[in-house]
Task: structure prediction
Amino acid sequence: MSIQPTLSTTRFLAASRCNGQRCLSLQELVRELIDLATDHANLLGVGYARLAESGMAWVLSRLSVEMEKWPAMHSTYTLTTWVESFSRLFSSRCFELREGGEEGPVIGYIRSIWAAIDVASRRPADLSELTPLAEAASARQCPIAPHPRLRMPEESEERQYTFMATDIDCNRHVTTARYVELILDSLTLDDYDREEIGRFDITFTHEALAGQKATIETARCDDGVLITAIKAAEEEARQFCIARQAMRPRQQPVATNQNI
Result:
C-alpha cells in the first residue's frame, strides 16, 4: 500500500462553528484537528478499527496551537496534517492552517502528541506494531516551539464542575473539546472581545469520567498568560489536564451590536 504522507481539507466557516467574536472557535478547531487526524490514520491503516483489533484506542496526550490570525465567519480555510515522528509510546502529528486554499497564506500551526491506551486496562499501549506510522513520518517542518512543561502557580481561583453524559466521547471519557471549553470559560465574553488567543498549550494526564466532580483552578500571570488546571475534586486529587493560554490584543474590533 502506498503511503499518503499528508492529508488536507478545505472548509467554509459557517456561523454555527464561530465564537462570540465571529471567528473559528478553539474548541471547533480542536474537533476538526481530531477528525482530520482520524481520517489520515484511517488512510494509513492505523485508525480506530485497526487499533480495536489489538484492544487499543487513540488518545490525545498534548496539543499546542499557535495562530497568527483566526479564520473569520463565512471565510474559507485549509487544514493539512502529517506525521512528524513515531516511537513505541507516542506519535507526533503536526498541522498547518492556511487562509483560503492550499496555496493561501499560512495563519497557524499546531503540534500534537498522540498515545494509545489498552481499552481493558486503561494503561498505555505499545505502538510498535503500527509500522505505517513509521513509514509516514515526514521531514516537513512545523516551525513553532515544542510543547512546554506546564506548572500550576501557587495562587489561583477555583470553580467546580461535574462531568455529565454529554461531556463523554466514544471512549467513555471526557472529550478534548469539553476540557477546552471549560478552560476557555476562565475568561469572560468581554475579555475575549478585547483579546484573542495567540498560543494555547494543553497536557492531558488522566482521563475523567461521567459523574466525576472536578475543580478548575485558574492563575492569571502578569504577561497576559493564564494557567488552568482541571483536577478531581477530592483529597490527593489527580490532575486531568493543565493548559496555558497566551493572550494578545485583538487585531480587529468586535462588532457586538450586529446580527448575522
The chain has two domains: 1-142, 148-253. The chain is about 20% helix and 35% strand.
